[in-house]
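Hi R.,

Here's the chain you asked about this morning:
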Amino acid sequence: MARRKGPELSVFKGREAKLNRAIFQALALKGPQTIYNIHKQVRAYRGLKYTEYASVNKRVRSLEQSGYIKRTGARKTKAGFEAPIYELASKAYLATVLASINLEEMLRRIDEISSDEILAALKRTDYCQDLRTHLATSFSKCLGAP
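And here is the predicted structure, written out as tokens:
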């Protein structure tokens, strides 16, 4: 199996990784779609030809629950039902970019202002609330200090 460039994210790990990537690709290329249309697109990918509609349906709903896909409206089907339309959320685009970049290369390329903006965004999400404490703890673990 080929090694990916960036960190391995949970959405791209495990049994459902290939189907998740196919759903992301179908929505990215064709725009907002119903589950039926996503299923038709997914079946065109190599290795997913025999994927059941129920599997795509379950995966799309799971990705919606996780915040990677969002519902944008509904479309009337030929049978007269309302079918929800799904599109990629910003979180899906971010996950795709993070999975494809090399962090060392990114750190080499960005400038001080970009670094400050990334740190500010992380701070807003409570990912690292007190940066000084976080850095001190990280360095003490690395150096073996008490």
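One quick note: The beta strands are 33-34, 69-76, 82-88.

Cheers,
M.
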